[in-house]
Design brief:
The chain has no helices and eleven strands. The chain has 123 residues and is mostly beta strands. A hairpin with a 6-residue loop joins β4 and β5.
Length: 123
């Protein structure tokens, strides 16, 4: 059973930065697509950034492109999301997810989920 544990959320002022980390275990040397998703109160969960199984493709939503950077360390089985220039529309619970295929960066394509970490942007 794949296990994902997120960390790094918190409160930051607009324009500030946060780095989220996700530690993955029980991969058993399989290759997985990994992604970050977020869910704001009253809204559906949405894809923020995902990386393909072979690391060749990293996708970003238009709203975070140029501000967020996803990185995967396949040796350590971790994936991080560096978030810069945070905006008032970025808050929510951020989830790490994994899937053996992950055809698209949408929640229904991902089978395994972490518990989420809260990100708050406020002055």
């Amino acid at each position: 059973q794949v296990q994902l544990v997120e960390s790094g959320g918190g409160l930051v002022q607009p324009g500030g930065s946060l780095k989220l980390s996700c530690a993955a275990s029980q991969f058993n040397k399989d290759y997985y697509a990994l992604g970050w998703f977020r869910q704001a109160p009253g809204k559906q969960r949405e894809g923020v950034s995902c990386i393909s199984t072979d690391d060749l493709i990293t996708w970003y939503s238009d709203s975070v492109k140029g501000r967020f950077t996803l990185s995967r360390d396949s040796v350590q089985n971790t994936v991080t999301l560096q978030m810069n220039s945070l905006r008032p529309e970025d808050p929510g619970v951020y989830y790490c997810a994994a899937d053996k295929v992950g055809l698209a960066c949408v929640p229904r394509e991902y089978a395994h989920w972490g518990q989420g970490t809260q990100v708050t942007v406020s002055s």
